[in-house]
């Protein structure tokens, strides 16, 4: 089949996928599986190979993704239920002082966003944001907007979040390098989120009536009826929460450092590679959380197991969508569409890192899901990345660039847009003027820093 025909089928498959998800409201898992079948038929893939190709795509992607997402969800859920988020936010505020509350909340949000999914993490922090805003006499958007911005930035580029982990599985990216790069760039983005949010908030935005009522009533019923209720266990200390987040990151970074500095076959490199594997690192974190948080909260084994199990139903949907993205990516590769696209991109002479960002940004704007945008872009560019002779560090940079592409242009087709605007009391128009602008600025800035690193290592 000609290159032009393959590219046409590839473009048509993306268009159909967007129509199914956006216009006809088909679940992303079903939509991607259906389009994968249609692409296989349209490109003339032998019928006897179609099912095995789909299974290989699902299995190859979920081999590590399912474990990482499940363990990450369990860790985040235990931190959530134990009250660790509030402990973290309050401690950062004490350290930085009451005059720097927005900065403190943003810093706490960046740390919390590492193990906790964006929507869950933001909802956890909303009561804390409300409390500080009421004390300061300002609207929730003043403190909540930069918090939401940096949490979404971490969500799209820092493992164990599903989009970046699934994308790394498709392009065979090194999770350790991706983690190091993603975190390193998110730190200055936290400051930028604070600055841009302050600029966007230079004029006031009226709160929606329902949010205004909710905000006005916040904290008014904490006394009286609750005064005789049994006291809950104290929230875990900030040191405990920081340890649960930083220990797995330190293990992963140790593995990456060993793989970079030590020769193949070296015993120390093998040991560091084992303890630095993301699966082992998260297993250590979950085991520590079961012991430290469980003991602090007085959870028995049954209660601990129930909390961990409650994290799995939401994670299951994410895992299935990520797996279906892997199926779609595998079909694109096996059908020859990936190779045709790779050859065509090479002919444009545009830097691959720029194309990766643009494609991901366009897919994000079109269908709303950052995870789908990352997975689909990685599938489209997998052949180009594999055949380009790139180092593990360069592959990681390309993957992070794709992640930052999925950060920008969050608008009405993104569930995160509605979560943020609902809790901060923004109308759709004001949400587009603030949240959409903030995510786009952060996405472009994150890509710019990634591109600088790309030039430095080229």
**What is the total tally of β strands?**
0
Structural category is mainly alpha
SS strand fraction: under 5%
Q: Which regions have little confidence, pLDDT < 50, spanning 5+ residues?
A: 221-231
Distance between the termini: 35 Å
Overall average pLDDT: 84
Contiguous helical run count: 21
Share of residues in helices: over 70%
Radius of gyration: 22 Å
The biggest beta sheet is recorded as: none
Provide the succession of SSEs: HHHHHHHHHHHHHHHHHHHHH
Overall 3D geometry?
Answer: globular
What does this structure look like?
It is a single chain. The two termini are 35 Å apart. The protein is globular. The chain is mainly alpha-helical and 458 residues long. It has helices at residues 3-23, 28-42, 47-82, 84-96, 101-112, 118-136, 140-157, 162-171, 175-200, 209-217, 238-261, 267-275, 278-297, 301-310, 312-334, 337-348, 352-367, 370-386, 392-405, 415-424, 428-457. Residues 221-231 have low confidence and may be disordered.
Topology (elements, then pairings):
Blueprint: H1 3-23, H2 28-42, H3 47-82, H4 84-96, H5 101-112, H6 118-136, H7 140-157, H8 162-171, H9 175-200, H10 209-217, H11 238-261, H12 267-275, H13 278-297, H14 301-310, H15 312-334, H16 337-348, H17 352-367, H18 370-386, H19 392-405, H20 415-424, H21 428-457
Helix pairs in contact: 1-2, 1-16, 2-15, 3-8, 3-13, 3-14, 3-15, 4-5, 4-6, 5-6, 5-7, 5-9, 6-7, 6-20, 7-9, 7-21, 8-15, 8-18, 8-19, 9-11, 9-19, 9-21, 11-12, 11-13, 15-18, 16-18, 17-18, 17-19, 18-19, 19-21
């Amino acid at each position: 089949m000609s290159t032009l025909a393959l590219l046409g089928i590839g473009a048509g498959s993306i268009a159909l996928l967007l129509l199914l998800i956006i216009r006809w409201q088909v679940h992303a898992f079903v939509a991607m599986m259906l389009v994968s079948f249609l692409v296989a038929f349209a490109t003339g893939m032998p019928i006897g190979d179609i099912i095995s190709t789909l299974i290989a795509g699902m299995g190859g992607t979920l081999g590590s993704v399912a474990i990482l997402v499940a363990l990450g969800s369990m860790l985040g859920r235990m931190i959530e239920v134990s009250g660790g988020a509030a402990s973290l936010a309050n401690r950062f505020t004490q350290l930085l002082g009451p005059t720097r509350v927005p900065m403190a909340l943003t810093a706490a949000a960046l740390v919390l966003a590492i193990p906790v999914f964006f929507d869950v993490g933001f909802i956890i922090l909303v009561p804390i944001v409300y409390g500080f805003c009421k004390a300061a006499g300002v609207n929730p958007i003043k403190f909540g907007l930069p918090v939401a911005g940096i949490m979404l930035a971490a969500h799209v580029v820092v493992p164990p979040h599903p989009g970046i982990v699934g994308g790394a599985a498709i392009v065979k990216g090194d999770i350790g390098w991706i983690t190091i790069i993603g975190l390193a760039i998110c730190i200055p983005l936290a400051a930028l989120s604070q600055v841009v949010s302050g600029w966007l908030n230079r004029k006031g935005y009226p709160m929606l009536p329902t949010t205004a009522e909710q905000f006005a009533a916040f904290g008014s019923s904490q006394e009286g009826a609750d005064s005789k209720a049994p006291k809950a266990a104290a929230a875990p200390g900030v040191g405990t929460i920081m340890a649960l987040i930083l220990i797995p990151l330190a293990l992963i970074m140790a593995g990456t450092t060993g793989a970079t500095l030590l020769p193949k076959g070296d015993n120390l490199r093998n040991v560091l590679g084992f303890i630095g594997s993301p699966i082992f690192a998260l297993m250590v974190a979950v085991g520590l959380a079961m012991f430290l948080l469980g003991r602090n909260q007085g959870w028995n084994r049954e209660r601990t197991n129930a909390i961990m199990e409650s994290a799995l139903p939401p994670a299951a949907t994410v895992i299935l969508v990520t797996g279906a993205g892997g199926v779609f990516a595998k079909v694109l590769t096996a059908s020859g569409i990936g190779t045709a696209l790779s050859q065509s991109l090479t002919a444009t002479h545009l830097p691959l890192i720029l194309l990766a960002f643009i494609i991901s940004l366009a897919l994000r704007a079109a269908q709303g899901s950052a995870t789908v945008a990352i997975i689909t872009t990685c599938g489209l560019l997998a052949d180009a990345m594999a055949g380009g002779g790139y180092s593990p560090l360069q592959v990681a940079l390309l993957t992070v660039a794709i992640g930052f592409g999925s950060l920008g242009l969050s608008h009405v087709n993104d569930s995160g847009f509605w979560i943020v605007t609902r809790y901060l009391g923004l109308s759709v128009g004001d949400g587009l003027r603030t949240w959409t602008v903030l995510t786009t600025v952060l996405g472009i800035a994150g890509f710019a820093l990634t591109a600088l690193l790309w030039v430095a290592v080229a």
